[in-house]
Every structure is written in structure tokens, then in C-alpha cells.
């Protein structure tokens, strides 16, 4: 099953003093999804923002809000992120002992269900929940910070995830160190959703965001074809 290439800029690299404008600009520049990185200073060694910021951003765009929760525990906060306006909610398999319960909760809240894995976590943790998810996020850096280097060993992991899902219409997302240089290999391996923070927002303004998003998309499509 071939799903569309989607470019998902992470607002972690945006100018936080004018987030609404940044989100509008990047959507006008061609972004498919907006990736929202939530960090708690406990599961990951950094703190970002919470559901109230997402709620404040929601009126600025109709774009799909793709929420990546790097928090533990996660279950007590799922409803708040759903109510804030997230369209998908992705949880770390490492965040708690009851992954299936977290996935059921997200489904019951009416949101797309995502699971993600740190680089060192094997794919086997979700082989028993494949029929309960819409998205698999392969972390290609250790989560917590933008601007890190892509870990090349994650290419084999993407390919193995692609093989594992079979015909299921599950999105395969990759997050961390995606640039115009690394996106092709990730697309070739089987990913179709590409998170990029510094590669896009680091470029400065809307015109530059557009050029970068176009190049990312072209490189992914060329590598896949
Ligand atoms: C890392 C986050 C990423 C990060 C990606 O913990 O999950 O989404 O913002 O940043 P870049 O694209 O700069 O590697
Ligand atoms: Zn992320």
C-alpha cells in the first residue's frame, strides 16, 4: 500500500514568540501536516510546550495536527491533547507498561493512533498492536532536541517496519535529522511522512520554507520512484 508523501514541519524549530504566524506561513509554504513535539523534562531531557499552546494554535490553520508525545506517564494527558485539537496522537512504546491501553484511549477519543520507538527499541514491541494503529513513527535521533544527526541504522528499521505492516494502510513516519540530503534514503526505505524541524524553520522566512518543502518533497518522490 503506497501512501502519499507528507512533509510535516516540527514547530519545535519555529520562532516561539510568533508561533501562530509561523504555522500559517509553513502551511502556505506547502506543509502537509504540523508536527507538535511535546516534551516533559522526564521522559526526555528537555521541556517544550503543552496542550494550551496547541489549543491557541488551532484557530490559525485547518492543517492536520500531528502530536508526538514524549512524556511519561502519558495516559493522564491524552484527553487534554485530544481536546486541544490534535488530529493524531503518537505515544512512545517506552512511556509505560500498557501501550495497548494508551492506543485504545486515543482511538476512543476519535483521533488517529500513532506509536513511536526510540532508536534502541526493537520493532517487536508493536507486532501485537498493528491492527490498532494508523501510524508508526521511527525515531531517527534520540528524542529531546532538534538539530541532531540522522542515525543511518534507522534505514533498515524503516524497511523492516514497512515489511511488517504488509497491506495495512499504516503511515510510516520518520523524525530526526531529516534534510534534503537524508530524506531520499528514508523514502526509499519505505517512509512516507517526514518530520523536519531545523531543515525548514531554520531557513528563515516563508519563501525559504516553500523552497525547502518543495525540495524535500521532490527528493522523497524521486527516491521512491
Ligand atoms: C526530536 C523531535 C523532532 C525534532 C526534529 O525529539 O521529535 O521532531 O523536532 O528536529 P530536526 O528536524 O531538527 O532533527
Ligand atoms: Zn517529533
TrEMBL record:
Q: Which family does it belong to?
A: Belongs to the ribulose-phosphate 3-epimerase family.
Q: Which E.C. number(s) belong to this protein?
A: 5.1.3.1
Reaction equations catalysed: D-ribulose 5-phosphate = D-xylulose 5-phosphate
Q: Does the keyword Iron apply?
A: no
Relate the protein's function as given in its record.
Catalyzes the reversible epimerization of D-ribulose 5-phosphate to D-xylulose 5-phosphate.
Obligatory cofactor(s): Fe(2+); a divalent metal cation; Zn(2+); Co(2+)
Q: What's the superkingdom here?
A: Bacteria
Which InterPro entries does this one have? Answer: Aldolase_TIM, Ribul_P_3_epim, Ribul_P_3_epim-like, RibuloseP-bd_barrel
Residue numbers annotated as active site: 37 (proton acceptor), 175 (proton donor)
Mind telling me what this protein is named? Ribulose-phosphate 3-epimerase
Pathway listed: Carbohydrate degradation
Under the heading PANTHER family, the entry gives: RIBULOSE-5-PHOSPHATE-3-EPIMERASE
Which positions are annotated as binding a divalent metal cation? 35, 37, 68, 175
Q: How is the cofactor bound?
A: Binds 1 divalent metal cation per subunit.
Per the UniProt entry, what species is this protein from, by scientific name? Neorhizobium huautlense
* Phylogenetic lineage: Bacteria, Pseudomonadati, Pseudomonadota, Alphaproteobacteria, Hyphomicrobiales
One term of GO molecular function: D-ribulose-phosphate 3-epimerase activity
Can you tell me which residues bind substrate? Answer: 10, 68, 144-147, 175-177, 197-198
